[in-house]
Design brief:
Blueprint: H1 14-25, E1 31-33, H2 35-41, E2 50-53, H3 57-60, E3 67-68, E4 76-79, E5 90-95, E6 97-99, E7 111-113, H4 117-122, E8 131-134, E9 139-142, H5 146-151, E10 154-155, H6 161-167, H7 170-182, E11 185-186, H8 188-197, H9 206-217, H10 222-231, H11 235-238, H12 240-243, H13 258-271, H14 276-284, H15 289-292, E12 294-295, E13 301-302, H16 306-320, H17 325-336, H18 349-359, H19 364-376, H20 385-398, H21 411-416, H22 424-439, H23 446-456, H24 461-490
Parallel strand pairs: 2-5, 10-11
Antiparallel strand pairs: 1-2, 1-8, 3-4, 4-5, 6-7, 8-9, 12-13
């Protein structure tokens, strides 16, 4: 995607223009800054809108109806309640500022407000983010050749790379994240500084590291991102368990070692646009293999129980990275049960039911997607016969069975309200009612069925038994047809 030479104001939401216009009417400067300017130049829709100004918080707050100011950085959040766009619900305005030293390699020791936009841009992390734009004047400020770097698709730090990373080590992961999100290369000096400073990433909080890691995972090229984390030396401080798969050959149907297989599976999940839970499960599904690898026959390897070991490892990793409990539980479960099928000729419907019970009806198709990632990670096609068979069996298990439970009346109604005694007659009556409803679903009403129960209950045992057995045969035939149609749908044998 070629960058624009200028920014078209019509690309900027009217709400943003109005917020900035309010600042300028009050006599202050107002600039869009950072990632939103970069994205506008790339014809990308910004995920958020950041505004910077020479006004201080005490001057900003009175200008707007509803604001929030609860930080040490001067950022005032403007709350817009009447917009449908989620990215515009809260717009942040931050005064121009300069920053002191980063003694803890995480946060600046001091923050001071400035009256000069250049001071603010000089503290930014990367040149492509050190851009400012004023819509009313069509003024684009680029002090560090950020536009040039956008054109050549390069991630480069503002100023000395080692200094920027020693200030805040998280910027190293951010460089890789931007590379994955934008499809940009990291400039050589910037990349070398990451390699030299990699160990300092261990000083960053788990929560901050996790947030950037998730953004890499959710980018279009997460495989590239994980590979870059490994090559720069950061992965061993974030998820060292993944590096155990490097050089861990699998043999058999597997073309790749465990590490490459996991990255390939992850990339397939991204290519499909699947959510975070599937992407994490794809990345971790075989993480237990290095610990369980044993020599088998004919130079092959076995990995018995790797899904159980992998599930335990996954839980440890995700708890260490402070993932939410519900996300941790789901991903751990998906890793634990990703091997639920191995042989379509031996698997039974009862086994499928157990799997559905273990992962939950709401997650069974998610598990199937993880299974697909596993297969594609072996350099195999997406939906071979085996996967189609799995789908058919799951649908068979999940479908509503044809039974008397579908009727609006049940045994209790027949006994308590309609005077039918418990015993064989009740079953014969219910089967007869079901046959009628299968033939004409509009008959499944209390009014009709109550009347039919009265009529059927007048019949002799012999007559009623004959009707009931005929109805049961009809039900069984209907159910068999459903199963046959289901297998035809997936083009598999019953």
């Amino acid at each position: 995607m070629s960058p624009e030479k200028t920014i078209k104001n019509e690309s900027i939401p009217s709400e943003i223009l109005e917020v900035m216009n309010t600042l300028e009417k009050a006599g202050f400067e107002a600039f869009l800054v950072g990632g939103c300017v970069r994205d506008l130049l790339l014809n990308r829709k910004p995920k958020d809108w950041d505004i910077t100004t020479n006004a201080v918080p005490e001057e900003i707050i009175p200008l707007y109806e509803k604001t929030v100011y609860e930080n040490n950085f001067g950022t005032v959040a403007i709350i817009l309640e009447n917009t449908e766009d989620k990215t515009l619900k809260q717009i942040e305005i931050t005064p121009y500022r300069t920053e002191g030293k980063y003694s803890d390699k995480r946060h600046p020791d001091t923050v001071s407000f400035s009256k000069n936009i250049n001071d603010d841009l000089s503290r930014r992390d990367f040149t492509v983010n050190a851009l400012a734009y004023n819509p009313s004047k069509s003024q684009l400020i680029d002090l560090f050749e950020g536009i040039k770097d956008i054109k050549v698709k390069t991630i480069r730090t503002v100023g000395n790379s080692s200094d920027r990373f020693s200030e805040d080590a998280l910027r190293m992961i951010r460089a890789i994240r931007f590379s994955c999100e934008l499809g940009f290369a990291i400039e050589s000096d910037t990349l070398q500084a990451i390699v030299e400073t990699a160990q300092s990433i261990s000083e960053i909080s788990a929560e901050r590291t996790r947030d950037e890691f998730v953004k890499i995972i959710m980018s279009p090229e997460p495989m590239v991102g994980i590979a870059m984390l490994q090559k720069t030396g950061m992965l061993k401080y974030i998820i060292p368990e993944l590096e155990q798969g490097i050089g861990c050959e699998q043999g058999g149907a597997h073309k790749f070692d465990v590490y490459e297989h996991l990255l390939q599976a992850l990339q397939h999940s991204a290519d499909k646009g699947w959510p975070l839970e599937i992407r994490l499960s794809a990345l971790f599904h075989d993480i237990g293999k290095p610990k369980t690898r044993r020599k088998g026959i004919k130079k092959a390897y076995t990995f018995y129980g790797h899904e159980v070991v992998g599930a335990r490892m996954t839980r440890v990793i995700m708890e260490r990275m402070k993932f939410p409990k519900d996300t941790t539980e789901l991903v751990t479960s998906l890793v634990r049960y990703h091997m639920f099928f191995s042989d379509t000729e031996q698997i039974t419907l009862s086994a499928v039911r157990r799997v559905v019970r273990n992962v939950g009806v709401e997650n069974i198709w998610t598990l199937m997607n993880v299974r697909e990632c596993d297969r594609v990670g072996m350099a195999k096609v997406e939906a071979p016969y085996r996967l189609r068979k799995y789908h058919a069996m799951i649908e068979q298990v999940l479908r509503d069975p044809i039974s008397v439970s579908q009727l609006v009346v049940d045994g209790n109604v027949l006994m308590k309200e309609l005077g039918v005694k418990a015993g064989p007659r009740m079953g014969w009556i219910l089967n007869s009612l079901l046959e009628e409803v299968l033939d004409d679903p509009t008959k499944n009403t209390r009014e009709y069925l109550d009347r039919r129960v009265g009529e059927l209950n007048e019949l002799s045992d012999e007559e009623l038994k004959k009707l009931g057995e005929k109805a049961k045969q009809t039900k069984d035939e209907a159910e068999e047809k459903e199963v046959v149609d289901l297998h035809k749908k997936h083009n598999v044998r019953k």
